[in-house]
Specification:
2 domains, alpha/beta, DNA polymerase, domain 1, eight-stranded mixed β-sheet, TIM Barrel
Length: about 280
């Protein structure tokens, strides 16, 4: 475990409030056990888990950063923008979250309709909502429903057969634009950070185009310290934060204890000479 007296930041994690496996309180407890001293809960397009997480963080003596992971549409693709250090009472932020949740509900209803037809099931939306405990279940919950229904072997099979782009039950969602998300994050006093930039399958040129737009819209930071980066990926991200004068962030993108390679707080050090995004958080 980490030395409890040293600082250990993990600014990207998920709970049951979106698609994580642990309750917000259990997530915080696990982070504390792994030596994390500052944790951001960044559930997808929702702030619902933050009150429970804040209470648990106070009990465990770690700092909780109010966060969110916004899904955005840019250049006809989906990207994810983290909002960190947020005032969750911001009216502009709360309105955006409500709009994103409505988009998620509509997408989930359409995925359910398509699965009923493509997989020969009935009431897929309703059954998946029961599994997730939410009216806006994401694709991992539909994968679980397919697995329980005996239509697929596992989650990967579910995505490959039905749920990924190009398959019969894939549904594109009318997310907000990148500039809208950044504006809403800033209205709430937060920092806007590009999440897992290596995870979109972009060429160097395309990543630089994305970050150029992000910077033009007023974006603040780039996630650069994550588990499992290759040396080439790390070198590209180092080139990018320097070229676009971006702050840097560190996050595991933790979802479940079953993902052994994504342990909370087990992150490489930040690049020498970089400015951590947490230096700009509202305290």
């Amino acid at each position: 475990m980490e030395n409890q007296h040293s600082q250990c930041f993990d600014l990207h994690s998920h709970s049951l409030a979106s698609d994580g496996a642990l309750s917000p309180a259990d997530l915080v407890a696990r982070a504390a056990d792994y030596g994390v001293t500052t944790l951001a809960l960044t559930d997808h397009d929702t702030l619902a888990g933050l009150p429970e997480a804040r209470e648990a963080a106070a009990e465990r003596g770690i700092e909780l950063v109010n966060g969110i992971e916004f899904s955005v549409r840019h250049d006809n693709r989906e990207f994810h923008i983290l909002g960190l250090g947020l005032n969750i009472e911001s009216a502009q932020l709360c309105e955006r979250v409500e709009n994103q949740q409505q988009a998620r509900v509509k997408r989930a209803q359409e995925i359910g309709r398509r699965l009923d037809k493509a997989a020969g099931l009935a009431n897929s939306y309703e059954r998946t909502c029961e599994l997730a405990g939410s009216p806006a279940p994401g694709r991992p919950w539909f994968a679980r429903h397919l697995e329980q229904s005996g239509r697929v072997r596992n989650a990967r099979h579910a995505f490959n057969r039905f749920l990924k782009q190009g398959q019969s039950a894939f549904v594109a969602t009318p997310w907000c634009s990148m500039d809208e998300a950044i504006s809403d994050i800033h209205a709430a006093g937060g920092q806007a950070v590009v999440a897992h930039p290596h995870g979109y399958g972009l060429t160097r040129k395309k990543l630089r185009q994305l970050l150029s737009a992000f910077k033009t819209f007023g974006g603040d930071g780039l996630e650069v310290a994550m588990p499992g980066l290759t040396r080439q990926q790390q070198e590209l991200l180092n080139e990018c934060w320097q070229h676009f004068d971006l702050k840097v962030s560190a996050g595991s993108d933790f979802h479940s204890p079953e993902q052994k390679w994504l342990a909370l707080g087990r992150l490489p050090p930040l690049p020498t000479g970089s400015t951590p995004v947490w230096n700009s958080f509202n305290k």
